[in-house]
Amino acid sequence: MGQKKIEAILFDLGETLVNFGKFNRGTVFKEAGRRSYSFLKKLKQPVEGFRKYFWRNMLGLRLRYYISLITGKDFDSLKLLEKYGTLKGFKLSPGQWQELNWLWYEPLRQRSWTEPDLADTLNKLTGAGLALGIISNTFVNSSALDRHLAEEGLIRFFRTRLYSCDFGFRKPDKRIFLEAARQLGTRPDNIMYVGDRINKDIKGALRAGMYAVLKNAYTNAGKKTPAGTERIEQISQLPALVEKINGDLSTLNTSGE
Q1: 131 CB-near residues (< 8 Å, 6+ apart)
Q2: C-beta atoms surrounding 189 within 10 Å
Q3: Does the pLDDT value for residue 54 go beyond 50?
Q4: What is the rounded distance in angstroms from the CA atom of residue 71 to the CA atom of residue 69?
Q5: Cβ(249)–Cβ(128) under 8 Å?
Q6: DSSP class of residue 4?
Q7: What is the predicted pLDDT for the residue at 247?
Q8: Reduced to 3 states, what is the DSSP secondary structure of residue 162?
Q9: Where do the domains of the chain lie?
Q10: Vertex 97, ends 94 and 101: CA angle to 5°?
Q11: CA torsion, points 38, 105, 156, 12, in degrees to nearest 10?
Q12: Which pLDDT value is given to residue 108?
């Protein structure tokens, strides 16, 4: 695989392109619950008291999450909200359902951050002719994740975006990596995959025959770099790494200027 040139790069989302770090899940969920509850009250929906609303949603989410661990399939947060809301008699437009889904995600988005030069780095990579894409294990509906990427000014770089809640499989299942390769129109051995989780990102990418890169994060702190894998501290190191693998790609140093 070392003789193959990199023609495309796929990224994990959380703790790779976008950092969330460690946070108190209970605090974030309660904040999200209050925002979504206020939204429903404002629209005069037949919502129950907040305490019951909060616990019903939290327990329902946990149950679906544990089921997903057993089945290996992620659920879709928007579909879950619509199912629950319909049973409760909520009458919302498609846009309002998406806004409700966003309000459940927004507190997490507000705690996130990216590398300050991330857009410049992605400009260099695309300027060198590399196709970029995303593969993320997530139950968050694509409408919220795409909105987050748009707010960060990043969505324009990623025409190929695969979220596991849209598929019957997720990382490290090599099928989601191969589907991304198909959408990119690139052979797996010409693709670099960058992620932070060894068991899901790195093992899955290697199984699919891709060039694996582990990005340092709290999720892999103290863990040994798997054989056949590069390790980086920041996304900004990728142009030099691609140049090292591909040889003399001078455009990596000049594009985006």
Answers
A1: 7, 8, 9, 159, 160, 184, 185, 186
A2: 17
A3: yes
A4: 6
A5: yes
A6: S
A7: 85
A8: strand
A9: 8-20+113-254, 25-110
A10: 140
A11: 180
A12: 97
Are 239 and 126 in contact by the 8 Å Cβ rule? The answer is no
* Residue listed under structure tokens 């324009």: 156
Quote the CA–CA distance of 120 and 78 in Å, as a whole number: 33
SS3 content of the chain, % helix, strand, coil (to 5): 55, 10, 35
- Tokens read off for 141: 């509906």
Instruction: Write the single-letter amino acid at 38.
Output: S
> How far is residue 232's CA from residue 216's CA, in Å, rounded to a whole number?
6
CATH of domain 8-20+113-254: 3.40.50.1000
Cα three-residue angle 62-65-66, rounded to 5 degrees: 90
Residues 192-241: tens digit of each pLDDT: 999 999 999 999 999 999 999 999 999 999 999 999 999 999 999 999 99
C-alpha–C-alpha distance, residues 169 and 34, integer Å: 32
Average pLDDT, the chain: 94
C-alpha span between 35 and 115 (Å, rounded): 28
Confidence class of residue 4 from pLDDT cuts 50, 70 and 90?
confident
Nearest partner of 216 among 233, 203, 230, judged by Cα: 233
Read off the tokens for 76.
């879709």
